[in-house]
Amino acid sequence: MDAPLKTRILSDLKDAFRSGDATRKTVLSLLNAGIKNEEIEARVDARAGVLSDADILALVRREIKQHEESLHEAKGAGRADLVAQQTAELTILRGYLPAQLTREQITEIARAVIAEVGAKSPKQQGDVMKALLPRVKDNADGKLVSEVVRGLLT
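RESULT FIELD:
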């Protein structure tokens, strides 16, 4: 049985082929190939070859991270064409992530966790992050969470 996210990606890929959207077609084809490779690895690792939505989200996050690095390099090289391409591809990939928490929402959750943990200084950031990350796992960027916690503990 396919994971709902995989089904959505395949459906979007078919739509991209029908509409002739070259950028979407390229991004989703590469994402689909990555999913297939992960499924092959899962079979080898005796995990039955079925990826969960969480596994696919992890793959999407890795792709986003690679695209962000490429975008940063393209900006540094002054390549406006590559910047535009990477930005368009990032937009497509981010469409498969769950809704992200705002900075204010992360701050609110972080304050509650800091109170629970009893953290008072920046030295306790690790303890706070350990308790906080499972709560915001799929809905917040780790760098932003770390930045918010650091700001609250200083």
